Amino acid sequence: MGSTRSGPMNFYMVSEQNNLGLVFEDLIGLAIESRPVCEPKAYKSIFKYASPTQHNVRQDINNLVSVSSVSSLKIEDSEVICLSKGGGFNCPPCHILEIDGFRILVDCPLDLSALAVFYPFQTNLYEIPNCKSSNSQTEQRLVSCERDRKRRRIEEPVEVDDLILAEPWYKTVANLHLWDLSSIDVVLITSFMGMMGLPFLTNNVRFSAKIYVTEATAQLGKLMMEDLVSMHMNVKQNYGPADSGLPQWMKWEALESLHLEVRNIVMGNDGAQLGGWQPLYSAANVKECMHKVQTLKYAEEACYNGALVIMAFSSGLDIGTCNWTISSSKSRIAYLSSSIFYSLHAMSFDYDSIRANDVVLFSDFSSMMVTDSNGGSCSSQSAMTIDTMDPCDENFSKATTDALADANESSDEMDKLAFICSYAVDSVGNGGSVLIPYGRVGIMLQLLELMFALLESSSLEVPVFIISSVAEEMLDFTNVVPEWLCKERQEKLYSGEALFGHTEQIKAKKLHLFPAIHSADLVKMWQEPCIVFTPHWSLRLGPVVHLLQRWCGDPNSLLVLEHGTDAELALLPFKPMAMKVLQCSFLSGIMMQKLQPLLDFLQPNVVLVAGQARIESWRTYIEILPESLDSSQSHMKLHWGSIDPNLLEKALQKKGIDGSRITNSGVNDGIHVFHIANPSSALIEIHAMYSIISSADETLSSLLVEAVSSVLEGI
């Protein structure tokens, strides 16, 4: 009792499910102090080597424990499967965790960026390029246009008539449709965008999982889904009732005629994503879905089946977004979603909640390749202070959190918002209008505050509209949730102020809310120039389509898009574009340079990062290595292939290891077992698709891994 352990932290890559089953063995050993433990124990070391011919591989968490840490960690019967690496804020990653026999799905988003392959329905539909008028029904006419389209050479860019002319379908997480939904026990949602695909699950009679989501995320997610349904219905009524079965554009003949870029979005490089497309759910499906959701407050415990304790903690990204901790009798796992350390509107990142976990799973690296003006790093003084401090020092936690919640980071975000508002005010000053398709609730609220402040200081009086079927309900909700907001916003409540500035602007009749572009009151009040906030950021649904058609030829008007949208493809139907386009990026996750200081603070035993099993992904691991790492300690190897028992027997002999093959009838066909007797007891099991090494001796474990690695192909 009372002893401590000092050992390396370990990083491992979890490949996407549809990739080859390649596992990084002993990928990186980090010379970082791990957290103290009361009673050091000896645990077995397990590694899995998967054949390159195996697809849909499930990577066991305990199969990813490195030899150097086998004496301090044991995670039994656990797996992590990366279904989707995600695409930033609007499409968070999706994982399946298997813990103590329970299967947990984390997030169920829609890839709404894929809507760009569809042509937006227009009132002047009969003027679509390369399509001739017809008296037949709309869908039949569009299919005819598809068949008449000539195949383009691969090297030619996408043109407007390469887009799909049909009622949009929606792209769900690849491979999720292949799972038996009855086998999923729990669903955890990290953000409102992470629940956009949830009705597809709850509408399935085989789905019976418990769904956990924070109260704020549940409400915002409900509004977002209702708005999506409303926008889709406006499009659907122009196409009429859809035929049962697959639409024409999903039939093989039509798929083959698609432009390569469009086809890759629809099918993926290997065609696996085609099965993820579905027609959108209904408003009734959304209502039914919300009845099956259990809401939680931050730090509120939810006990599932008496075996798992699940808790949500603020991630700082937006209102209600969270990280999750899952505790069982054997381990404690933290699921770290897209997070930011200091928020200008939402409750700040909760550090202590995910500290000292056995495993930390980093789910989203979409922001890792983006650097801010300061390189995304902590200040040099702060970094130097942290480097010279002992992690056990009581001041270490405060110094680390202060450095991570860098004021420069929030200042840069404010500068971006101010720049957008300044550009917008200049545009309306020149007689142009401003169109801002929004996706992030927090960004929209902050833009509204800054926009009105700048308009007032510029003595400009122009109307500001929010056009959305849920605009009024959404703004009302954001002003009654102080417990989900940052301290600065909460202090406004105590001083009698509104949490956000839009309340005063609505009362002053400077901000106008309308449910639809064709609202009678909006038509009466409409005047230009104006500033409009409206969905949808894909530029395929909602009022944005009509307004973009109206202003795309005005060189004084401005369109604001968030970085991550394929602007070239999204704007294709609206070309030629004289309208100015401003594309900005906002912080949506942990910057690469801040990851290593965060790990110093969290001190997990094992870190899992999701990514593709390929050479390019190694850059991620190189970037997050501590500066003090001795290069001689870095041991990167990628192994694959089948293990030849005869070669392994020779490799063991070369290392002076006394082992014998067990060939009794108790061993299944295709499984080879080596019993190691000297220098200490151990066991090696060779299966067709993986191998297991079991040993209580850390030194022997390392030798056995070296022996196994030597008979595999690798780089």
From TrEMBL:
This is Beta-Casp domain-containing protein. It holds the Pfam family Lactamase_B_6. GO terms for biological process: snRNA 3'-end processing. The lineage of its organism: Eukaryota, Viridiplantae, Streptophyta, Embryophyta, Tracheophyta. Transmembrane segments: none annotated. The keyword Cytoplasm applies. PANTHER family: INTEGRATOR COMPLEX SUBUNIT 9 (PTHR46094:SF1). The keyword Cytoplasm applies. Residues 447-569 form the Beta-Casp domain. It comes from the Eukaryota. Gene3D superfamilies: 3.40.50.10890, Ribonuclease Z/Hydroxyacylglutathione hydrolase-like (3.60.15.10). GO terms for cellular component: cytoplasm; integrator complex. InterPro entries: Beta_Casp (IPR022712), Integrator_9su (IPR027074), Metallo-B-lactamas (IPR001279), RibonucZ/Hydroxyglut_hydro (IPR036866). Belongs to the metallo-beta-lactamase superfamily. RNA-metabolizing metallo-beta-lactamase-like family. INTS9 subfamily. It is found in: Cytoplasm; Nucleus. Keywords: Cytoplasm, Nucleus.
